[in-house]
Amino acid sequence: xxxxxxxxxPRVDIITDDQASDEVLAIFAGAEELLAFVSNxxxxxxxxxxxxxxxxxxxxxxxxxxxxxxxxxxxxxxxILRTSTRNRCFF
Amino acid sequence: xxxxxFDRAPFxxxxxxxxxxxxxxxxxxxxxxxxxxxxxAPTFSERERAAITWGDRIAKRLARxxxxxxRVLKEHCSEEEIVELTAIASLAAMADRITNALRxxxxxxxxxxxDRGTIDAAGDAWRRAMFGxxxxxxxxxxxxxxxxxxxxxxxx
Lengths: 91, 156
Known about the structure:
- The complex is a heterodimer of chains A (91) and B (156).
- With 91 residues, chain A is mainly α.
- Chain A has four helices and no strands.
- Chain A has helices spanning 22-35, 40-45, 49-63, 73-86.
- In chain A, α1 runs parallel beside α3.
- Chain B is built from eight helices and no strands.
- Chains A and B meet through α1, α2, α3 and α4 of A and α2, α3, α4, α6 and α7 of B.
């Protein structure tokens, strides 16, 4: 599942739909609904479902926001791009 | 893409290829944000420039001391917006650290539509319901923490 041909392999296996428990499938369904797709980040974090069930809705709320969001999505995405660039996020 | 390739930053590339276009950020604008040229680029409004600068200072851990960046941000954003912006930049930093440490692979670009920006009514209801459940069950999930009286020398 590693798409980075020249990079080191992931340290933790991602959870596929086939391997997911009912609790994890519910988290994936939420990620699909709110973030449009289940990222490898979500599939990795759900190795700790007790964290993921809090983290994924939090990410959706902060990153996208609903009717209660203060900022528009464009300005938030600009801040994400700059933060990630400065952090030199390799993966 | 040049910056992403130079930095070997596939997570940044995912944001670049998937998330940014869905909220109206052009490839040229994303490229500018990846360099230091955004500060003078006319494509960004003063408000957007202040937000990008704030994200930059959070990433560099300079936000606490950078009075000038905060002063400019305060001119363009309400306190609610500043809190939201600080949360989003900090969330990005957390995601960067997790993806770096665990070497999580990026996905191929996902074709998101332009209306992906905010959660729609159905998703909003789902999110509120999920948080509603969390809000009513979190105390049972974790249980109370016993508090001890601080030692005499700590109280003083």
